[in-house]
Amino acid sequence: MKRIRKGDEVLVITGRSKGTRGNVLRVLDKDRLLVENVNVVKRHTKPDPNQQQQGGIIEKEAPIHVSNVMLFNPQTAKGDRVAFKTLENGRKVRVFRSNGEVVDI
Q1: What is the mean pLDDT of residues 86-91?
Q2: Rounded Cα distance, 39 and 62, in Å
Q3: Is 16 part of a structural domain of the chain?
Q4: Domain count of the chain?
Q5: Helices (H), ranges, 28-79
Q6: What is the mean pLDDT of residues 62-87?
Q7: How far apart are the first and last CA of the chain?
Q8: Does the residue 101 lie in any domain?
Q9: Is there a domain that residue 102 lies in?
Q10: What's the CA gap between 73 and 82, in Å, rounded?
Q11: Residue 89: inside a domain
């Protein structure tokens, strides 16, 4: 089970996008994430008439390492660490370390 999943709201804790919040768009491999409006880079592309693609400078999100983000806790309005807990019915869920609230619903 992953600590951070697609759709989670995360807070960037290091790098040039430090302090930015965003939702996880995709989880790449096991340790890289695409977060919206975080680590935005400019890509110079050539036009491709076969795919009806214009050329120019395109801004897009680059992958960021999972260790550079923390899951955002809305109750404390800060980044928080994640632990795993097994419920009585045997289901494994993620919980915030600071207050023990369940992340998964």
Answers
A1: 93
A2: 6
A3: yes
A4: 1
A5: none
A6: 95
A7: 15
A8: no
A9: no
A10: 10
A11: no
